[in-house]
Design a protein that fits this description.
875 residues, globular, alpha+beta, 16% strand, 6-stranded mixed beta barrel, 8-stranded mixed β-sheet
Length: 875
C-alpha cells in the first residue's frame, strides 16, 4: 500500500514516539503500532487515534526510552543533579506556596483517581464474558397504557428466534424463582436468588466453575449448581457435587459448584436450577407466547448485520404470535449488547435481574467533573508560579548574567514543575488510600486502589500522565520566568510585572468551574429532596414487607387477625406486587356507550384493606369489602389516570373485567382513587386497575407498624410469625428502604458532585489565598502610604478586594448559563422534577464570593493592621 493511500496514525504521537524511542527499536515498534492503528481505523478512526496515543504514552518507560546525549553539553548528569538541588531549595524556601501547590494538586489528582476507580468499576460489569452476547428486550405499546421498554421476554422467543435467525448461534433463558427453602436432613435454610436457566447457560456465560462439567451441570430439570458460599452454608465444604437437597418437595442433585458470582455481574444468583424445574414441559414451554416473565440472551455471530435482523423482527412477531399484523402495533423487539445492560438500562422497566443498575450518563458527568477539578488544581499551580515570578526575577537575572541560556532556565523551571507534580502524585495516592473506606460506605462500593498499584501497567501510565501534567501546568510559568531580561530585573525595574490578563483569565476559569459545581450541587440536592418529600399518594413509612411462602399463604387470614391484635401493629394487608415497581400489564375491558373498549393498564391484585393500610385516597366510589361477595374477582378500583383514559368523569358502576372474562360475566368499577406514584418518579403515573382475587394468593404481606416503637413492633411480628410458620425463617424489608434503592444512583451522583464541589471551592480558595498574599505583599508600601494619608479599614478592604470580586462576578456570568443548560438536561431524567430556581444561582454566586472574600480578607486585614512605619522604612 502506498504512502498516499495508507491510513496513517496522527502525526504528533508519531513524532513523539520517534523522539523518545530507542533507535534500535523504533522501526519495529512504529510498524506494529501502525498496523494496529490501520486495523482499528477500519472500524472507528476517532477511537483508533485515541488508542494509538495511549499506546505511545504507555511505551514511554525504561527499556524503550533512548539514551539522550544532549547537544553542547547544556544538560548532563551534573546539571540534572543541580536542577534537583535547586528545585528542592526553592520548594523549601517558599514553604507556604509549595505546600499550597502540592496540596491542591494532590487533592485534584486524588479526586481524579477516585473517579477513575469508580468509572472503571462500573464499566467492568460483565466484562469477564468473552462471547458476543445480547439481551432480548421489548417495547410495549398497549392501548390505554404508557409506552414502555421492558427487559422481559416470552419463553418461546429464545428457541424460535434461534431457529429462524441464522445470525443467532445459541440462546439461554434466565428465570427468577426468588427465595426458596432448602431442606436437609438436619436443617432448613432459606436461600435467596434461586434462578432457572437453560442447560447451556454456563457455556454462554463465563462464570468460574470450581467443580462439575459446565456442559452438563443443568442437563436435567432437577439438577443444580450452587455457589461456594451456599455449599459452605449447607454442607460445610466446597466440593459437594453429588450431594442432594429438597426444594419445593423435589429431590435436587448438585451437579456443579461455582465461585461466588462476581460483584460486577448484572446477573446475581446463589442456586442455579433448570428453567424447567417448575414442572414446565420442554416442548410446550418452548412454544409459549403471550406472557413475559423471563430474560432471554443470545450469542450472535460477530459478522451479523444487526440492522438487517431488526428489520425482520416485525415479521417474526406476525408469524409467531398469531395475532395478525396488528401485533406490531403493540410489540417491538430490540437487542441490547451485554456491555450496555448495566449502564444503559435506566429507561427499561421490569428490569428485575440487573444488579446495581446505574445510569451510564452519570459516568460522563463524573469524568468531566474530574477533568474540571484537575484543571482547577493546574490553574492554581500556573497562577501561583507566575505570580511568584517577582521573587525569582533576580535569580533569573544573575543566572543569565553568568552565562545561562534561556533553554537551561526553561528546563530548570519545567523540572521543578514535574518534581512538584510527582510529589503531589505520592500524596494523592495516600489521600485516596485514607479516603476510600469512608467513600465506599457513602457510595456503596468496594473500590480499592491497591490492585492498580500492583498492576505493572498502572504506575507507568500514572507517571506518564503526571509528567505531562507537570509539563503542561509549568509550560507558561517556565516560558514567562525564563524570558526576564537581566538588565531590567537587576536594576529593579517593574516593567515585567504588569498586570497579567492571562492570570486573571485563569482565575475566572477556576471560579467558573467551582461556581458551576456549587450550583449543580444545590440543584441536585433540591431535586433529591423533592423526590424524598413529594406526596406520592400513599404512606410508605413504617411499612414492613414480608415475602409470602407456602405456610404464610396457607395461614394468612389467621396471621392477619393475630397481628391486628398486637398493640404496635396498625394494619395488615397483602398484594401480588410491590409498590415502587411498575406493575404488570394485562388485558382489561370496559363496557362503554359505544361498545366494549379493550385496554391494557397496569394491574395488581390486592387484599380487601389494601387502600386503608396504604392511605390511598378515594376520589369516587367505595373501597373493597368482604360484605359484597362480588368484590372477590368482580370489583375493580381504578386510578384517576385510568378514568381520564376512559374519558369518564365518574366511571363508578361501569361494567368491566379482565380481558378473558366473557362479556356477559363482567364485574364493575366500584371506585376511583387519586393518582399515586406506584412506580419510581422517573416515570409518569400509568393507568392502573386493582382487584381482589383471594384464590390467586399473594406474593408479599404489608404490615403497618407504630413508628414510635419499631423494635417492639418487630418483636410482635416475630412472635406471631413463629406461631404459624415453622419451616421458613422470618425475613423482612422496610418499604422506604426499597424506595431509597430506586434513587440510589441519583443519590450517589449527588454525593459525588457535592464532594467535588467542596473540593473545587477549597482548591480555588487555596490558590486565591496564595495569590492574595503575593498581590498584597507587592502593594504593602501603597497600603502604608494610604494609611498615613487617612484611609480607613473599610476603604482599604474595598480597594484590595475589588479586583478579585470583579473576577468572581465575571465567573458567575460565564458559569450560570452553561450550568443551567447542563442541569436542565439532567432533570429530563425525571418525569417529576423541580423547576430550576434562579435564586439558586444567586446563592451559589454569593457563596463563592463570600468564601473568596473571606480567604482574601485574612491577608487584607493583616496588611491593613500592620504598622505603616515598617512598610515605608527605606531598606
Amino acid at each position: 500500500m502506498s504512502e498516499n493511500t495508507q491510513i496513517l496514525p496522527p502525526k504528533l504521537p508519531r513524532r513523539f514516539l520517534k523522539w523518545f524511542c530507542n533507535p534500535q527499536l523504533v522501526e519495529d515498534v512504529e510498524g506494529d503500532l501502525s498496523e494496529l492503528f490501520a486495523e482499528r481505523a477500519s472500524e472507528n478512526r476517532f477511537k483508533a487515534k485515541l488508542k494509538y496515543m495511549l499506546d505511545v504514552l504507555m511505551l514511554f518507560r525504561p527499556g524503550i526510552i533512548r539514551n539522550f546525549e544532549l547537544k553542547n553539553g547544556l544538560i548532563n548528569t551534573s546539571m540534572l543533579k543541580n536542577y534537583l538541588k535547586s528545585s528542592i531549595r526553592n520548594l523549601l524556601k517558599y514553604k507556604s506556596f509549595s505546600s499550597i501547590n502540592i496540596f491542591s494538586l494532590s487533592i485534584g489528582m486524588a479526586a481524579c483517581m477516585v473517579i477513575f476507580l469508580f468509572v472503571k468499576d462500573e464499566k467492568s460489569f460483565d466484562a469477564f464474558n468473552e462471547k458476543n452476547i445480547y439481551r432480548l428486550c421489548e417495547i410495549q405499546s398497549f392501548p390505554g397504557t404508557n409506552t414502555q421498554k421492558v427487559a422481559l421476554s416470552m419463553p418461546g422467543m429464545g428457541p424460535t428466534m434461534t431457529d429462524q435467525f441464522p445470525e443467532i448461534e445459541s440462546y439461554t433463558r434466565f428465570r427468577r424463582y426468588g427465595s426458596q427453602l432448602v431442606e436437609l436432613d438436619d436443617k432448613n435454610v432459606m436461600v435467596e436468588r434461586v434462578v432457572g436457566v437453560d442447560s447451556n447457560f454456563f457455556e454462554m456465560f463465563d462464570y468460574e466453575l470450581l467443580f462439575g462439567d459446565r456442559t452438563k451441570v443443568v442437563d436435567g430439570p432437577l439438577d443444580a449448581v450452587v455457589t461456594r458460599d451456599v455449599a459452605m452454608r449447607l454442607f460445610g465444604e466446597v466440593n459437594v457435587v453429588g450431594k442432594t437437597f429438597v426444594m419445593g418437595g423435589d429431590q435436587v442433585a448438585i451437579r456443579g459448584v461455582m465461585e461466588n458470582v462476581p460483584e460486577n455481574s448484572h446477573l446475581q444468583f446463589n442456586i442455579v436450577l433448570s428453567v424447567f424445574a417448575s414442572g414446565a414441559e420442554e416442548e410446550e414451554f418452548n412454544q409459549t407466547f403471550g406472557g413475559n416473565f423471563l430474560n432471554t440472551y443470545f450469542v450472535i455471530n460477530e459478522n451479523a448485520d444487526l440492522g438487517e435482523m431488526a428489520r425482520k423482527f416485525p415479521q417474526y412477531l406476525i408469524d409467531n404470535l398469531n395475532r395478525g399484523e396488528e401485533i406490531i402495533e403493540s410489540y417491538q423487539l430490540f437487542l441490547q449488547p451485554l456491555e450496555d445492560v448495566h449502564l444503559a438500562s435506566t429507561d427499561i422497566e421490569h428490569d428485575y435481574s440487573n444488579h446495581r443498575k446505574f445510569n451510564g450518563q452519570y459516568l460522563d458527568v463524573f469524568i468531566l467533573v474530574g477533568i474540571f477539578i484537575l484543571i482547577i488544581a493546574s490553574v492554581n499551580f500556573t497562577n501561583l508560579t507566575t505570580a511568584r515570578a517577582s521573587y525569582r526575577s533576580k535569580e533569573v537575572g544573575v543566572r543569565k548574567t553568568i552565562g545561562a541560556v534561556r533553554k537551561q532556565l526553561f528546563d530548570q523551571f519545567i523540572f521543578e514543575s514535574v518534581l512538584l507534580a510527582v510529589i503531589a502524585l505520592f500524596f494523592a495516592i495516600i489521600l485516596v488510600v485514607l479516603a476510600l473506606p469512608a467513600l465506599n460506605v457513602l457510595i456503596d462500593r468496594q473500590l480499592s486502589i491497591f490492585p492498580f498499584l500492583l498492576d505493572i501497567e498502572f504506575i507507568p501510565i500514572a507517571l506518564t500522565i503526571t509528567l505531562l501534567l507537570g509539563v503542561v501546568a509549568g509550560l507558561y510559568p517556565s516560558l514567562y520566568l525564563s524570558s526576564f531580561k537581566p538588565v531590567v530585573v537587576l536594576k529593579g525595574l517593574k516593567s515585567q510585572e504588569k498586570k497579567s490578563v492571562f492570570r486573571s483569565s485563569l482565575i475566572i476559569l477556576q471560579f467558573s468551574l467551582a461556581l458551576g459545581m456549587i450550583v449543580c450541587t444545590l440543584i441536585v440536592v433540591e431535586q433529591l429532596m423533592y423526590i424524598k418529600n413529594k406526596d406520592i399518594g400513599f404512606a410508605k413509612d413504617h411499612i414492613v414487607l414480608i415475602e409470602m411462602n407456602r405456610e404464610t399463604q396457607e395461614n394468612f387470614v389467621q396471621m392477619k387477625e393475630e397481628l391486628l391484635n398486637q398493640s404496635n401493629i396498625l394494619g395488615v394487608t397483602a398484594s401480588g406486587q410491590r409498590l415502587g415497581n411498575n406493575f404488570h400489564q394485562w388485558g382489561f375491558k370496559v363496557s362503554m356507550d359505544t361498545g366494549m373498549l379493550d385496554l391494557t393498564p397496569s394491574n395488581v391484585h390486592v387484599d380487601y384493606d389494601y387502600l386503608d393500610v396504604y392511605d390511598i385516597e378515594l376520589k369516587n366510589g367505595r373501597t373493597f369489602s368482604k360484605e359484597y361477595a362480588t368484590d372477590d374477582g368482580l370489583a375493580f378500583i381504578i386510578n384517576e389516570s385510568f378514568a381520564k383514559e376512559l374519558g369518564l368523569e365518574n366511571p363508578v358502576g361501569r361494567k368491566a373485567g379482565h380481558a378473558w372474562y366473557p362479556n356477559d360475566s363482567l364485574g364493575s368499577i366500584i371506585g376511583v382513587t387519586e393518582d399515586f406514584n406506584f412506580n419510581s418518579l422517573h416515570y409518569k403515573v400509568n393507568t392502573l386497575a386493582m382487584v381482589v382475587h383471594t384464590e390467586w394468593g399473594f406474593s408479599e404481606m404489608s404490615i403497618k407498624i407504630n413508628g414510635q416503637n419499631v423494635e417492639a413492633a418487630l418483636a410482635e411480628i416475630d412472635n406471631v410469625y413463629s406461631k404459624f410458620v415453622n419451616d421458613y425463617p422470618l425475613t423482612y424489608e422496610f418499604l422506604d428502604d426499597h424506595f431509597k434503592e430506586l434513587y440510589k444512583s441519583d443519590q450517589q451522583m449527588g454525593a459525588v458532585i457535592t464532594i467535588i464541589a467542596v473540593l473545587s471551592i477549597f482548591i480555588g480558595c487555596m490558590g486565591l489565598f496564595g495569590l492574595a498574599s503575593i498581590s498584597i505583599q507587592r502593594r504593602i508600601k501603597e497600603i502604608g502610604i494610604r494609611k498615613v494619608m487617612g484611609a480607613s479599614l473599610k476603604e482599604l478592604m474595598i480597594l484590595l478586594s475589588k479586583g478579585f470580586t470583579m473576577m468572581i462576578l465575571v465567573a458567575f456570568v460565564i458559569a450560570s448559563p452553561i450550568t443551567y443548560v447542563f442541569m436542565s438536561g439532567w432533570l429530563e431524567n425525571f418525569a417529576y422534577r423541580i423547576d430550576i430556581n434562579p435564586f439558586l444561582f444567586l446563592i451559589g454566586g454569593a457563596a463563592a464570593l463570600l468564601i473568596a472574600l473571606a480567604t482574601v480578607s485574612y491577608h487584607v486585614i493583616r496588611a491593613v493592621r500592620a504598622n505603616p512605619v515598617s512598610s515605608l522604612r527605606y531598606e
